[in-house]
Amino acid sequence: MITLxxxxxxxxxxxxxxxxxxPVIHERDYSCAGSLLIEASARQAGRPITLKSGDESNGRAFxxxxxSVVLQIQALQDAGDADMTLTLHDGRTxxxxxxxxxxxxxxxxxxYHQNPQEADDLYxxxxxxxxxx
Length: 133
Known about the structure:
By secondary structure, this protein is mostly beta strands. The chain is built from 1 helix and 13 strands. Helices cover 10% and strands 44% of the residues.
């Protein structure tokens, strides 16, 4: 199981960008003499954490969440900009905020469309977070 604050999420959500970030960043420039200058520094925060539902190779979906959970996440996202604790299924914890740099920090779509939607209907989600410390 994964928890975001007090919200329980399925442990099968995939951390899509886990290995797409480095804690060390390089700035490159050239000196007046033409030599390459590389300055390295450690990032203090800002690691993206994107949790996603998806499909296995056999076509079965993983990481589906109930509509009631989607509504809880949406309410938390809309409530403000507080720091939250994200605890992954393996016990790692991160202090995060919703990453609202591209409008909404969450995408959600029903796994099976029907009207009206019920609280137990399953949704595929993409949850965009950013580590703040």
